């Protein structure tokens, strides 16, 4: 999709949309799509999301490392779902879990719905948002018109059997009941949480645009081009024959361009019959180096990742058997404790109602990705 950047004050404007019956997510109601597009376009932002998702997931739930049951129609185990959720949370800071029940009010399936597809519905007189609207074209990437007939209206998560029963009756029976959605975000005081990339959207876009500019310069600029100055040709046949010969010599995939200038007059000087000159590239790496370094640094800081986990080109940091790297990994593991707690609490709330015992010991510990380096006293 085409990236559209919006003024800071309006980027996460959350206003009630009377026509659609939802709270818009951003001024153009496409904020999650903007976040995903810029994340995937920026090499630094994508790397930051990858790293943070790993430090949220760790090595999965301790209880589910063996013989974990299937928890949805996609055939996912609880740790597989947790891995997907960890990346979504790392990218969007929002999670929407879709929960389905059986007639005994037991949870029979849990799955993730992407942030791009979910919007919060209207509030009642008490300010309670009881509905979510799921739709696959909020960003209008599949068509310019919003089709309300394709909306899926799903109730907010509440495992109380009496509440579920009322929702089923309102839907017209179990066959028409669409289940519930549990919305988890990093800022519980906000309708939708900001992504970590929000403060550096322009830096992420700058990183992407720099790569586009350099690529265009290599493809369409003067990089590797040659200038040929020749004596006048006798006719078009001779001229075309010369051009075809040069094209055969240009190298694999026509990697270099040729500019041909034909002199107006003959010369007795043999050296002037044909002149070959290089045309310097119009790409100045030094112009980009400072910008690329500053944008990458800003993006990394926005995601709270120690520089050593991304930029490890300096061999000096690996002194003392990599002690600095080990400590940085452990520090980042500690920094992601809040995110892990938010997600594990949500999983505990949902899977405690699962139709079969999934965690009888109620152990929701996550296996650490890294352990603090042990020291011994000599």
Could you give a quick summary of the protein structure above?
This is Phage portal protein. The protein is built from 10 helices and 11 strands.
Written overview of the protein:
The mean pLDDT is 83. Among the domains are: 8-200, no CATH class; 224-280, no CATH class. Helix 2 (31-41) packs across helix 3 (43-57) and helix 3 packs across helix 4. It is α+β, with helices and mostly antiparallel strands. It has helices at 8-11, 31-41, 43-57, 78-92, 161-171, 201-220, 236-248, 285-302, 319-335, 337-351; strands at residues 16-17, 22-23, 94-101, 107-113, 118-120, 131-134, 152-156, 180-185, 225-230, 258-262, 274-279. It comes from Flavobacterium aquaticum. This is Phage portal protein.
What tags apply to this protein structure?
Phage portal protein, 378 residues, three-stranded mixed beta sheet, 10 helices, alpha+beta, six-stranded mixed beta sheet, 14% strand
């Amino acid at each position: 999709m085409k990236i559209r950047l919006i003024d800071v004050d309006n980027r996460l404007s959350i206003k009630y949309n009377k026509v659609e019956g939802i709270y818009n997510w951003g001024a153009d109601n496409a904020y999650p799509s903007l976040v995903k597009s810029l994340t995937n376009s920026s090499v630094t932002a994508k790397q930051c999301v990858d790293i943070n998702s790993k430090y949220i997931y760790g090595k999965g739930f301790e209880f589910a490392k063996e013989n974990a049951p299937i928890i949805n129609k996609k055939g996912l185990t609880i740790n597989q779902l947790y891995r997907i959720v960890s990346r979504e949370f790392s990218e969007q800071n929002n999670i929407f879990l879709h929960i389905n029940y059986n007639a005994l009010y037991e949870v029979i399936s849990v799955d993730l719905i992407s942030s791009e597809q979910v919007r919060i519905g209207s509030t009642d007189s008490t300010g309670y948002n009881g509905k979510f609207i799921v739709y696959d074209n909020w960003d209008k990437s599949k068509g310019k018109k919003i089709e309300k007939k394709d909306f899926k209206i799903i109730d907010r998560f509440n495992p109380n059997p009496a509440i579920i029963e009322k929702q089923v009756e309102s839907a017209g029976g179990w066959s028409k009941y669409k289940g519930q959605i549990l919305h988890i975000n990093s800022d519980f005081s906000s309708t939708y949480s900001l992504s970590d990339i929000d403060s550096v959207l322009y830096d992420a876009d700058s990183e992407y645009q720099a790569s586009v500019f350099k690529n265009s310069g290599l493809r369409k600029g003067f990089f590797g081009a040659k200038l040929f100055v020749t004596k006048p040709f006798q006719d078009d046949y001779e001229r075309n024959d010369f051009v075809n010969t040069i094209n055969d010599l240009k190298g694999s995939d026509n990697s270099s361009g040729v500019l041909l200038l034909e002199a107006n007059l003959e010369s007795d000087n043999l050296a002037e019959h044909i002149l070959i000159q290089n045309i310097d590239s119009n790409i100045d790496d030094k112009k980009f180096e400072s910008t690329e370094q500053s944008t990458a640094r800003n993006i990394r800081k926005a995601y709270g990742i120690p520089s050593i986990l991304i930029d490890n080109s300096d061999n000096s940091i690996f002194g003392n058997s990599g002690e600095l790297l080990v400590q940085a990994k452990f520090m980042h593991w500690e920094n992601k404790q809040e995110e892990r707690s938010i997600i594990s609490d949500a999983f505990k709330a949902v899977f405690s109602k699962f139709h079969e015992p999934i965690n009888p010991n109620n152990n929701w510990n996550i296996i650490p990705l890294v352990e603090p380096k042990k020291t011994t006293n000599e």
